[in-house]
Amino acid sequence: MTRTLTLRNRFQGNSTIVENEFIDFYMAKANGEYVKVYLLLLRYLNADDHSMSISRMADCLECTEKDILRAFNYWHEAGLLKLDYDEAGNICGLAIGKASVKPAVQAKNKESSITLQSMEMDKPAERRVNSQEELRQLYFVAEQYMGKPLTVNEIKKINYFLDELNFSTDLIEYLIEYCVENGHKSMRYIEKVAYNWADMNVTCVADAKDISASYNKTYFSILNAFGIKGRNPAALEMEFMKRWFDEYGFSLDIILEACNRTIANTHKADFKYTDTILKNWLNQNVHHLSDVSNLDKAYQLEKESKKKTKAKPVTNNRFNNFEGRSYDYDLLEQQLLNAD
Predict the structure, then answer these.
(1) Backbone angles phi, psi at 94, to 5 degrees
(2) pLDDT in tens, the chain (340 residues)
(3) Looking at the domain covering 124-203, what would its CATH class be?
(4) For the chain, first and last CA: distance in Å?
(5) Within 13 A of 125's CA, how many CA atoms are on the CB side?
(6) 222-299: same fold as 124-203?
């Protein structure tokens, strides 16, 4: 039997109003910590002083400033918050407004603003963007590809690509798109690819596409040699292959030969075993497949030479476990004649 609950309102005038649309359509889907942040924002709207700080909110909710920023990004994506940025790319204010999940509902977009004291962040250098709107658009595109709101650290990384690596916004968008399409949404992985492109003097999307096509063809050739099909290389596998090309300086034919020998000896795709083979060839100054053939011939000659010079084992048995005797047969014959 379902019991009906009777509710009584005991609130006084000093209260915070939460719209029914938030409760009906947004609250259940949101993380509980995000809900706390949103309710606290509503509380500040009813305060006499609308100014606040991220650190103050973090202290009030007993969480970190990053937690507060993650909540901001979540509600921004949900359409309940509008974030304002200063020229340095830091959040400096926000607006709370109604948003309806049903197109049939025509609601007034009534907004209340709060001035937000900006969180201390690294001062960026001169950006390769024409306006703050372009920067916000870059953040938005990155969030769409990664499928989640950007964290403060991820925003700093994107700013670093702009300021220090001198990547254009188009190149950064392609960078994130390329990594996500290859199954990597981690900013750590995206950062590694960015450094690699910077080392190769990639300055535009066309350069990046050429390099990506070349690397993909090469890497998939190695995976195919290992019998790996139907998937992209893992991060660790990429590190091995990049080392073989960039650090060891081997051509694809030598690497494929090492892969074939790995399969022949271990019967599995063992990147570490292949790395050992290639490292040994590197120490022996291998530059061409002919050098590998010469090493094989020298090894066989040495092996045969050892077989020929190997001493035969001495057979020990009970007939050989005594000292042999020698006899003077002439002396024995003389002794026998004298005995007569």
Answers:
(1) -155, 160
(2) 556 666 565 655 667 788 888 888 888 888 888 899 889 888 887 666 656 788 888 888 888 887 888 888 888 888 888 888 777 777 778 888 754 443 333 333 344 455 555 443 443 444 555 567 788 888 888 998 888 888 888 998 998 899 888 899 999 999 999 888 877 888 988 998 898 888 888 888 988 888 777 677 788 889 999 998 877 777 788 889 988 987 888 888 999 999 999 999 999 999 999 999 999 999 999 989 899 999 988 888 888 887 777 655 555 555 555 555 555 556 656 666 665 5
(3) mainly alpha
(4) 138
(5) 9
(6) yes
> Domain 222-299, CATH 2.60.40 — does that match?
no
Cβ atoms of 57 and 43 within 8 Å: the answer is: no
The residues, any chain, with a CB within 8 Å of residue 48's CB and separated by 6 or more, are none
Assign a CATH topology to domain 16-121. Arc Repressor Mutant, subunit A (1.10.10)
Task: Report which DSSP code applies to 101.
Answer: S
DSSP secondary structure letter of residue 233: P
Q: Residue 242 — φ and ψ, nearest 5°?
A: -65, -40
CB atoms within 10 A of CB 311: 5
**What are the tokens at 229?**
């099909």
pTM, entire model: 0.39
> Which of 91, 79, 88, 89 lies closest to 26 in space, CA to CA?
79
Bridge partners of residue 115, in order along the sequence: 93
**Can you point out the beta strands (E) in the chain?**
52-53, 81-85, 91-97, 111-117
How far is 181 from 299, CA to CA, in rounded Å?
A: 46
Q: Cα torsion at 169, 171, 172, 176 (round to 10°)?
A: 140
Distance CA 177, CA 36 (A): 33
Q: Judge contact between 91 and 155, C-beta under 8 A.
A: no
- Residue linked to tokens 């000093």: 14
**pLDDT for position 189:** 86
- Could you state, in order of their start, the residue ranges of all structural domains in the chain? 16-121, 124-203, 222-299
* 192: nearest Cα among 175, 204, 206, 208: 175
